[in-house]
TrEMBL record:
Keyword entries, A-Z: ATP-binding, Kinase, Nucleotide-binding, Transferase
Catalytic site: D92
Native organism: Candidatus Hepatoplasma crinochetorum Av
Entry protein name: Deoxyadenosine/deoxycytidine kinase
PANTHER family recorded: DEOXYADENOSINE KINASE (PTHR10513:SF35), DEOXYNUCLEOSIDE KINASE (PTHR10513)
Length: 221
């Protein structure tokens, strides 16, 4: 089983992913693929000058996340051959999410049209590979919150690179994730089940329990 915890920067997906991992690992073979392990060497440059570095950094993120995904699929194959237990992968952001960021930078003209075409061609190849292997996410949980709540959450974690970014960028990213039907339709086309979880006025523990209860109703844990 493949479970994705998705959402804009600051919505709380990494915290929820960690809590869900701790809960599920007691009774399942579980692998948590953390977003922080896919870190581009271009990230700091990208935050300082997105127009110069958006294309190369987004491509680097995409390929890094795809490599992470592919290694996990190989582990899954070996595990399934030798065990009867369910192999669960929990994604703290999936490479499907990279589409959101690349689209945003194309709209903002940080990525040129020719580079956007190149990115989309590579991205399509990766999606086709995922579908060919029947390795689509089984559950894609999109965490939502009001914009002000999201800003408060990521300011609380006090990451310098994020604090230095113009507020307008975070507004645009928020809009891209939650207000553009084509983005959510893109997710729906490439996953088995797409579930939206409202995290407003909820602790990460409560959000985790909501996800857990949903999976229990599906009789998959």
């Amino acid at each position: 089983m493949r479970i994705v915890i998705s959402g804009t920067v600051g919505v709380g997906k990494s915290t929820v992913s960690e809590l869900l991992f701790k809960k599920l690992k007691k009774t399942n073979h579980l692998n948590l693929l953390k977003e922080e392990t896919v870190r581009s060497i271009y990230l700091d440059y990208y935050y300082k000058d997105p127009q110069e570095w958006a294309f190369i950094s987004q491509l680097d993120f995409l390929l890094g996340r795809f490599k992470q995904w592919l290694l996990d699929e190989k582990k899954r194959e070996l595990f399934v051959k030798n065990n009867k237990n369910n192999y669960i992968t929990l994604y703290d952001r999936h490479f499907l999410d990279d589409y959101v960021f690349a689209e945003l930078h194309t709209i903002k003209e940080n990525i040129s049209n020719i580079n956007s075409i190149t990115y989309q061609a590579i991205y399509k190849e990766l999606i086709d590979k995922m579908n060919f292997l029947n390795a689509r996410p089984d559950y894609f949980f999109l965490l939502t919150a009001d914009f002000n709540t999201v800003i408060e959450r990521f300011r609380d974690r006090n990451r310098k690179a994020e604090k230095d970014v113009d507020l307008e960028y975070w507004k645009d990213l928020f809009h891209n994730y939650y207000k553009r039907p084509m983005i959510q339709n893109h997710f729906k086309r490439n996953v088995e089940k797409f579930i939206v979880i409202d995290t407003n006025n909820k602790t990460p523990e409560i959000v985790m329990e909501e996800i857990l209860n949903y999976l229990k109703k599906e009789k998959n844990i």
